[in-house]
Amino acid sequence: MRFRTLKQLVQCCEAEGLSIAELMLADQAHQSGNSPEQEFRKMMDYYQIMKEAVAKGLTEDTTSRSGLTGKDAQRVMSFMSNQETSLGEEACRAMAYALAVSEVNASMGRIIATPTAGSCGIIPGVFISAQQRFGWDDEHMVRGLFCAGAIGYVVANNSFVSGAEGGCQAEVGSAIGMAAGAMTELRGGTPAQAVHAVGLALKNTLGLICDPVGGLVEIPCIVRNGFGAVNALAAADMALAGVRSVIPSDEVVQVMYEVGISMPEKHRETAKGGLAQTPTGKKIMDSLYRKGKDKSKPEAKAEPNEDVKK
């Protein structure tokens, strides 16, 4: 890649007169040895899976195997159809779509990790709701995915995208930054504005711990995806309005790294702290453990009926 930092990303785009998406597509093709057309088709396939996941989450039973979560996206959509929302219809729809994809993941459905399975709902939630709102075609959305990918590449190589390494700030936070920057470019923002959106988004999630109840990517992960989609939209609007990240976005990424390595182990996807260790969280863990033990017991063999004994 011709860039390792967000500042270098903007400089390359400005020097060559390219959008972030165009630069990323060219660099990805060069790295893979495939043609840009091949890389674009591959990303188009990923986008179709995202759309399928949204549709499935809104129409099918997404109850997780644990029974802890499911159908919240459908509840939000039903609420939207019957009442005026506090959030506003468009942002609420993005939230519902993000919940839908995350619930498909929890119910063992097919998703695209963007950048991880635990944060898989944020980019589809933002992208697919925006596509419906603005009437964009799939090609435009795929270009947005390349923009998001460039941002994710920088974050992953300078900080974390894994909750186990850097807490939920790294997982959900990175996805929010990727979605915010891409949304800014999709709406006509400059590379510099897109990178400001990343900084604005990441600052709002610094210090967010990873505390999955029962060790499952369900509680609070799913609702954080919903909130994350809304935060991404807010960051994009701020950047498009001319709001700048006073702390340069690369420095925000560095802070996320420093916070992540300082975070206690119990707050990094171990289920040893945070919500996982509340009284209710512990009860859920105990219940799941008992269910697991019951399922692992061998079934007792029934004695044959006397009539069939020799």
UniProtKB/TrEMBL annotation:
InterPro entries: Fe-S_L-Ser, MmgE/PrpD_sf, Ser_deHydtase-like_asu, Ser_deHydtase_asu. Keywords: 4Fe-4S, Gluconeogenesis, Iron, Iron-sulfur, Lyase, Metal-binding. Residues 16-276 form the Serine dehydratase-like alpha subunit domain. Its cofactor is [4Fe-4S] cluster. GO terms for molecular function: L-serine ammonia-lyase activity. Residues 268-310 are annotated as: Disordered. Its EC number is 4.3.1.17. This is L-serine dehydratase. It catalyses: L-serine = pyruvate + NH4(+).
